[in-house]
Amino acid sequence: MKILLTTLNSKYVHSNPALKYLYTVVAGEHAHVDIREFTVNNDPNYIFQEIVRANYEVVCFSCYVWNIEQIKILAADIKLAAPKTKILLGGPEVSFRGYELMASHPWIDYILSGEGEYEFYRFCQVLESPERNFETVPGLTYRQGKKIYVNGDVEPMDFNLIPFPYSILDCEGDKVVYYESTRGCPFNCSYCLSSIEKNLRVLDMDRVRRELGYFLYKKVPQVKFIDRTFNFDRQRAKEIFQYIISMDNGITNFHTEICADLLDEETFRILSKARKGLFQFEIGVQSTNRKTLKAINRHSDTVKILRNIKRLVSMGNIAIHADLIAGLPYETYEIFARSFDEVYAAKAHNLQLGFLKVLKGTPMEEEAGKYGVVYRKHAPYEVISTDFISVKEIIRLKAIENMLDIFYNRGGFAGTLEYLIAALGKGAFAFYEALADYYYEAGYQNRDRKKEDQYRIMLGFAKYLADQGIVPEAEVRVAETLDKDLLDTMNPENYKRFIRKGWNID
What we know:
18 helices; alpha/beta
């Protein structure tokens, strides 16, 4: 039996840990199982040809919001080209309402719900048995003749019994290595799939040390924990931080998602000893509006979160990424602007302005009608409007998100942004709102632009502010701040080339 485990990652540097776990539990026991990871940016014809040319008997796709629509097209084409090839879908995007999905897509032969390790192991056993007793595979939705059958789920496995994928697979040196030391989440945020699983399971600390030690030994560039809340257990998190710091190889970076309000003094003391660049923290603030947080079942201390973000940033050795979500219940455009200003003031190195995604199976999907949430019916199911924010306001926030990414998250405008936000005197949100209005009115969003062009656009915006009498001195001052930002950002040769070309934009 020749089986392919595959997916479409969002970028080349990403990898799919789910496929690696599935491969590890069947490796050596089944005739031929391959892993091939593609990306959503690969030529669809290339992916189609690679899979069909290999003559697999079963092709298994790992499905997420970012790839499900492309996988549907690809898998349907594979079925047309090789009708005897069986198609299996798994992953969070197909784990809910599998019957309906299979009924509307006749090219799907199997859907595997849930975590999948034991279920896939059992599925492969049944595939290779003469009886083909698919009813014995937990979590499997399958087709026999014209009928579709849905098997019941099983309790998740003891996480410590699942093999470490890199015990038999190589670390990919040019990709992020994803690692989980826990499964499940102690919190119940209504928009998140992790809120469904109530059973939090952790790996033994001895195993965690061994596995992290392996990554350090291999000198992988980045290890990204996919634990939903890395520091839910303060003591455990501190032990892991201390171990990583003590074993630091000077190369590997560790990315974790943390709750900043759970940090204590001892954790700060430990983290203060870390090499600059060793850690990278992602902190989900989502909103600072209490009514909104209550509606989405987040019981965090926002004041403490923002205070601790500032403290982490001031330490100077850890990169901080903060998240906001637009389109949440009770958050109007004006209230979101307030959340934005409060989080922006914490000065995280990266601020992501995201948008609510109404994922299948989440409490938010059930409550969408309660809050008037209108969302796209195809993945990634992003919010269009709610009872509290209009479609035009969401679109305007999309433009502000673009400005935030170009001028703040990508870096290079620190002095200019600080000056202009202070000069306008209405807060960071009002600044990015005005910048977005100028940028889009001029049509600059209609084509990809090099970063050097964004400096020219920013000077044009300053000239606009001066000409309108909004900030009369803006053009002169911004010319000075941009020149300094350029010198801080560009190497001397590129700076000279920029100056020779001048400030006029094509």
